[in-house]
Amino acid sequence: xxxSAHVLPRISVQQLRAFEAVARxxxxxxxxxxxxxxxPTVSVQLRELAESVGEAxxxxxxxKLYLTEAGRALQETVAELQHCWQRFESRLADTHGLxxxxxxxxxxxxxxxxxxxxxxxxxxxxxxxxIELAVENKDRVIERLNRHADDLAIMMLPPTHLNLATLPFxxxxxxxxxxxxxxxxxxxxxxxxxxxxxxxxxxxxxGTRQVALAHFAAHDFSPQIAMNLGSNEAIKHGVAAGLxxxxxxxxxxxxxxxxxxxxxxxxxxxxxxxxxPIHRQWSVVWRRDQAQSAAARAFVRYLEARE
Length: 307
Ligand code: PGA
Prior knowledge:
Blueprint: H1 13-25, H2 28-35, H3 39-53, E1 58-61, E2 64-67, H4 69-98, E3 101-108, H5 115-125, E4 129-136, H6 138-146, E5 152-155, E6 164-179, E7 198-202, H7 207-218, E8 224-229, H8 232-240, E9 246-249, E10 268-271, E11 278-287, H9 294-305
2-phosphoglycolic acid is lined by residues 108-110, 137-138, 155-157, 202, 206-208.
């Protein structure tokens, strides 16, 4: 018998099913009725299979069909294939069976603009997982991490006092925004040219605020802070209303799904400024001293697999 690798692609699952049924029942008629197909269909499938294998698979003994030696070898192979497939199915069932239950994620306020976009495909893939999302500023997310309140947290500035595993998964450019009513030069202007401007800052405890102030200080710039506002939306509306300028994550301005979309709030402009954007990243973090649920592991794997 001359079997080579190129024979396998010519063999169909239907041929193997027909073969298995005839081998088990000893008759084409019985096999055809067990498989709910016509007798000629089974005969053709057996003939094509024997041609591919290059050997007779059955011999007739009275009204019954008996397996040849090659037929017996093929019968064992088909049984192995069936077991192999069953193992695959049970692994698949395990995977879905285990990835169930609640998944608690804490995310900083700025991440609320893109985390729901990320959760959609994950939720579709793991319908047994119930996701609970807490949205807080950076300090509050750290406080939640301190008391083991969540499985995972999504943030820009993971704290260093906890033993955390950290997986950066997305760029987070922070840009300067100003009122669109003002005429801004297209060329990036030096920061000191903005010293007469008033600035709207996020509240104390916000990571955006911390990064913006550190960046200003690193470039010897002291902003005139007009207001501290407790949300990105309040900042956006304040800037659009002409109350001042601000530093915000670009993801708070345009959707992750379409970063080139012209979806800036009317009245807002991204202002080209030297040393901007500030390049940071979003990370998913979890405590190493906390056992991770299967759902949390699945979510981390899902983020890792993103392009
Ligand atoms: P926040 O987010 O400004 O909403 O706190 C940024 C971060 O700290 O990750």
